[in-house]
Fold this protein.
Amino acid sequence: MSKREDDIPRERGAAGNERRIHAWAAAWGLAEGTFFFIVPDVWLSWVALRRARTARKAALSALAGALAGGALVHGWARRAEADATRAWLLRVPAITPEMIAEVEAGLERGMHTMVLGPLRGIPYKIYARTAGTRGESLGAFLSWSVPARLPRFLLLPAATQAFTTAGRKLLGGAHPRLEQAMHLLAWSAFYTWYFRHTGVFASKRGRRRRR
């Protein structure tokens, strides 16, 4: 039985939308792995509001982008002076000298400490730079990058789906605008807390106290 002709544009449109979702996830992963300071989880969880299965697939695209970004930073850090790469990191919002020192101390114990990075709120790019500066092999760095990045990329869409499903049961149906507003509010609250307590603003407060 052939497909109806009016179904073909609809399917093509859906495929195009999915490709754009994956492209955004990969680009965001690459950006956050190099210079950007907002995690791809924001995009993945946004997609999960309406398309949870697509969001889980897009997590792999975000991982691919993150690995590409990590490889770029790693390769650059192997060739550049350590002081220059450190100064570059400190120009990225929410990266502090304390974070860099913690990663440097952690990689002294082994590459496996990368896996703890997401739990500590430490940006991936610091690990990429430090591994490159230390002369760690790219293969080892990328191998440890997968368990350091992918679980969280999968967890946030799953959590978003769970909360959205629970909210719809409680409210008796989907409320897309409310769900989107709650998503933006949650991430805004998180980054407000993050910047105030672990990021650049916390570092500035610490410097003022020392004066």
Q: What stands out?
A: Residues 18-161 form one domain. The chain has ten helices and no strands.
